Amino acid sequence: MKEIYFAGGCFWGVEHFFKGVDGVADATPGYANGRTENPTYKEVYTDTTGFAETVRVRYNPARVDLTFLTRLFFTVTDPLTLNRQGHDEGTRYRSGVFYTSEEDRPVLEAVFKEVADKLGVPLVTELEPLRNFYPAEEYHQNYLDKNPEGYCHLPLKTFAYLRLYQDARLYLGEETDTVARMANLAALIAKKMHFFWTGFYRVIDNQLVLGPFQGTAACFRIGFGKGVCGTAWKERRTIVVPNVEEFPGHIACSSESKSEIVVPVFHADGDVTAVLDIDDNQYATFDTVDAAWLELLAALV
Description:
The chain is of the alpha+beta class. The protein has 9 helices and 14 strands. The chain has helices at 11-19, 41-45, 66-75, 105-119, 143-146, 156-172, 178-193, 227-235, 288-299; strands at 2-8, 24-32, 52-59, 84-85, 88-89, 95-99, 126-129, 133-135, 197-204, 207-214, 221-223, 239-241, 259-266, 272-280. It starts with a strand and ends with a helix.
């Protein structure tokens, strides 16, 4: 077993999230990298001890690797907000990744760089060696299991996406046909998340051509740089559209579509080979949480 320490705001939700990750043996909430010994929650809450609410994650590296765990960590934290996550504010709620083995640092630095490059700005999330860690009081352990209606700063859809991702990775398995993988992934997303339209457009002869999908009849072809799909292809980035009527050049394949997210699918050589297109019949359905998880799902193709 190996271990890594994640500080991501209130430790109740972070613990509950990582307990659900395949390959994680246990997740323990506690206090890390402070200036005193054996702190209590009341002491840490004063923001005078230097401790951060942190979760120790013990995992089996044969089943889940550090790169993936750290990418998951960044799906449940805001790396650009200093000393705050969600509604929780204070130095005890700062975000950070603390490691116990120097061999882990290059792996962590690579993920930090990946996230910073994508966001285009430096991260405020700390990356430091673990100096100390004290498990939190018993009533904090497995808090959301004991209190299912208890406070959690993580959006509920985060947990739904985690289950979806793990189901999809297992279900797609070693299938080598890309279209077959697209077909079942579209079906899994539609069933689990209940979006209005979920599907893929494949890059063929410099056009996006309709691929496997779930939902109403859709446009057959979309040009490079046209509409949300063509723009995501051209700009090689995920595009979130709260209101499709406000997107310049929007292509209305269905009048029922109100909001949309489009995620590029990349080949190993870096070329965009398809896009994952998801529409909903409600406004402002999608946000950065959806973007982070759908990018992970699109990578399974």
